[in-house]
Amino acid sequence: MKKIAVPVQGENVSAHFGHAPEFKLFSTEDNTLSAEEVIENPGHQPGLLPKLLNEAGADIIIASGMGQKAIAIFEHNNIEVVCGAAGNAREAVSNYLNDKLDASDNACSHGDGDHRHEHEHHGHGGHSHH
Question: What are the chain's domains?
Answer without folding.
Answer: 2-97 (3.30.420.130)
